[in-house]
Amino acid sequence: VLFERAAIVGVGLIGGSLGGAAKRAGLIGEIVGVGRGAANLAEARRRGFVDRTTSDLAAIGAVDLVVLAVPVLSTAAVARELRPHLRPGAVVSDAGSVKGAIVAALEEICLPECPVVGAHPIAGSEQSGAAAGRADLFVDSVCVLTPTPRTDAAALERVAALWRGVGARVERMDPAAHDRALAYTSHLVHAIAFALAKTVGDAGDEVVGLAGPSLRDATRVAASRGELWRDIFDANRAALLAAVDTFTARLLDLRAAVARGDDAALLALLDTARRARERLEGGR
Amino acid sequence: VLFERAAIVGVGLIGGSLGGAAKRAGLIGEIVGVGRGAANLAEARRRGFVDRTTSDLAAIGAVDLVVLAVPVLSTAAVARELRPHLRPGAVVSDAGSVKGAIVAALEEICLPECPVVGAHPIAGSEQSGAAAGRADLFVDSVCVLTPTPRTDAAALERVAALWRGVGARVERMDPAAHDRALAYTSHLVHAIAFALAKTVGDAGDEVVGLAGPSLRDATRVAASRGELWRDIFDANRAALLAAVDTFTARLLDLRAAVARGDDAALLALLDTARRARERLEGGR
Fold this sequence. Notes:
2 copies of one chain form a homodimer. Chain A has 284 residues and is an alpha/beta fold.
């Protein structure tokens, strides 16, 4: 096993799935699920994602790994509460969609006694909770680890082995580079989906009644929990605003070409976009 | 049978699938596939979507239905070329994504001898050509018919029966109302997908490499043929521009809430969007 005993704080879609996948692969001896919602904890235990559960952070002292799989804006607060109970050498990791500010906060709270490894498994869906968890959620996904100059090399390798062991391809990136990339590949995509769903909803029943597959695909992630995405948008504000501005400029380029009837410019833009789309498929 | 002999001009994804579906359901006695691309015509015949094919519009005189399944901006020109060869009473219909200008042009060209019924089957994908056709493409889809004060009631009912016969739910709408609705549910969605694919492509390989399912879903239709969408955008210019402007305003509302850290306004916007998204699913 990679870790004798681990605590997963927050056994929702990501935390629950990680527990289930790690147990199935025999990577962790015992997993304690920690959370505040009794029903969700019970569901995680019932599904075999964790061995036991508790709502008491103080009860998880003797672990050699803590994974904070809580909403991004709660991560630092939970770490601060946990910190006095951790034994030296326990690895602290997370699963958040934003890394810069969070990794910096975790290092401030946990170093030097407890090594910190920032992690972002790029998986999941618009669903949430242990009920939506799956032990195969990370198979063929990408997990980005975000080491800093202060990251312990051995801890980094152990966390990398954990994610590889549950089926993910592990990439390493600087936290700021991760946040910039995710602003485009995920946070912007969600912002657009929310704005598009609202736009179509406001346009009235006659419009809503004609929704087809392209609109449903384009707005699928707008079914996600608002609190979760409010936090992510806040936590990655600067990079998200830059991505929104770049996208808006491209959409207005297209608008301008349509408005002035410039078919050559419009077709050039659509063809460039089509080639870019092919590269996104190639990235699988 | 509903029609003894029909010509489908343009046996691509939509025209080919309509032929295959109508033949399977026994709705049309004989179907002539008309087009310019020999390979695509051969593919449509090979797959049994049509009984015979020709590239000569003059060869299709004795039909009682013509379906123009060609790019929207070609529809009027093809109708003008066809018109001298049609016998009185032959029903002229189409399958275009834009209706206002096209139905007006068809009525101008064909009435009063040949009744005109505007139709838009909302189906298809980012693929094209007879090779992508499927006889079940319209099952559980919506087909919008767009009658005008000049529409012949009997012809309208026969075309409605054809689309119902291939599995579609038939809705009737004013052409302008159709174009406004489709500007939101489809044309805006494609404009966003093209702009988003280009934005992410321009952001560099590090960003492209982290593309996940949400980005791939959101940009799926950006793999569509540029020529097709250039024409649709042009043909529905005014309604598309209005939809782009409304969407841009909503995205900038979201941007402003993030920029000023207004968590209450942001959450309210996300929650409204989530409820709107639920209505889109309900429309199935």
